[in-house]
Specification:
The chain is α+β, with helices and mostly antiparallel strands and 275 residues long. It folds into two domains: 124 residues, MutM-like, N-terminal (N-terminal domain of MutM-like DNA repair proteins), CATH 3.20.190.10; 124 residues, Orthogonal Bundle (Helicase, Ruva Protein, domain 3), CATH 1.10.8. The chain is built from seven helices and ten strands. The strands form three sheets. It has a four-stranded antiparallel beta sheet. A hairpin with a 4-residue loop joins strand 3 and strand 4. Helix 1 runs parallel beside helix 7, helix 4 crosses helix 7 and helix 6 packs across helix 7. The longest helix is centred in the last third of the chain and has 20 residues. The two termini are 37 Å apart. The mean pLDDT is 93. It binds a DNA duplex (16 and 16 nucleotides) through helix 6.
DNA sequence: CTTTACACCTGACTGC
DNA sequence: TGCAGTCAGGTGTAAA
């Protein structure tokens, strides 16, 4: 489920409730997520004040003085702020209490995780990550230099975290549609004009999605229990056989790198003009 | 080095 | 109504 906009929506939703608050209690009901929850290390943080709620790529970082909790939502994870009376639901796996404010994690598929580490920047999951797509480091020039020698399909590269982080299947498909680029186009064949367009549409798409509270497919709710509204804006994702909003051609569906990839065969031609 | 296949896990949906 | 098969927003690891 969650790509960068959903994680950022989550961060903004929970931060006002827990930032600068003291962690008072932790409950781990199911420690067996993608990685086992280090229960001891989590309990060690009880009594400490949460210093900041940050996001890096699709990871949420809860920073305390001595260590940081890294949270990943996997495919189906979500965080909510709940009250003391809230019943535990099926697939609610853990909860952090900040006084009477409870941060509760729900994840049917259990692909997410909660781990602790002393220096986040050095952590194996974080250290190899590429730039944030909404930062200055992610420029058209950066894209150009990184893609010039690659032969992999552009869509695969957009979803490669070492190149740029936070872009998952939905936003890769949507950005490529807006830029008029076929998802199978080999990276090195992209023209400077196409790269510039793509760069702009990646940022615009992510910004728009964040502004609308992320996408809601299936059961994504932001921490206040509200759905995201970006799904209503999707041009191609999940729209196989349906008419393209721009030209009416039925949207097609390909498998690229094991992921289904939606695109408009008319608006996103392969090898336009050949070269 | 790149590319693929698989692994983790549950639930929703399709077709017989 | 049931059952088997397929698919799903992620990503680290192993194999080819």
């Amino acid at each position: 489920m969650p790509e960068l906009p959903e994680v950022e929506t989550t961060r903004r939703g929970i931060a006002p409730y827990i930032d600068q608050q003291q962690l008072t209690h932790a409950i781990i009901r199911q420690a067996r997520l993608r990685y086992p929850i280090p229960v001891e290390q989590v309990n060690c943080l009880i009594g400490q004040v949460l210093v900041s709620v940050e996001r890096r790529a699709k990871y949420l970082l809860l920073k305390f003085n001595t260590s940081t909790l890294i949270i990943h939502l996997g495919m189906s994870g979500s965080l909510r702020i709940v009250s003391q009376e809230a019943e535990w639901r099926k697939h609610d796996h853990w909860q952090l209490a900040f006084g009477s404010v409870l941060l509760r994690y729900h994840d049917p598929r259990r692909f997410g995780f909660l781990i602790a580490c002393d220096s986040v920047e050095q952590h194996g999951l974080i250290i190899k990550l590429g730039p944030e797509p909404l930062s200055d480091a992610f420029s058209t020039q950066y894209l150009q230099s990184k893609l010039a020698k690659r032969r992999a399909p552009i869509k695969t590269s957009l979803m490669n975290n070492e190149l740029v982080v936070g872009i998952g299947n939905i936003y890769a498909c949507e950005s490529l549609f807006l830029a008029g680029i076929h998802p199978l186009t080999p990276c090195h064949q992209l023209t400077p004009t196409q790269l510039c367009l793509l760069h702009g549409h990646i940022q615009a798409t992510l910004n728009r999605a964040i502004a609308q509270g992320g996408s809601t497919l299936r059961d994504f709710l932001n921490p206040d229990g509200q759905p995201g509204y970006f799904a209503q804006t999707l041009n191609v994702y999940g729209r196989a056989q349906q008419p393209c909003h721009q030209c009416g051609t039925p949207i097609d569906n390909l498998r690229i790198g094991g992921r289904s990839s939606y695109y408009c065969p008319q608006c996103q031609p392969l090898n336009p003009g050949k070269q």
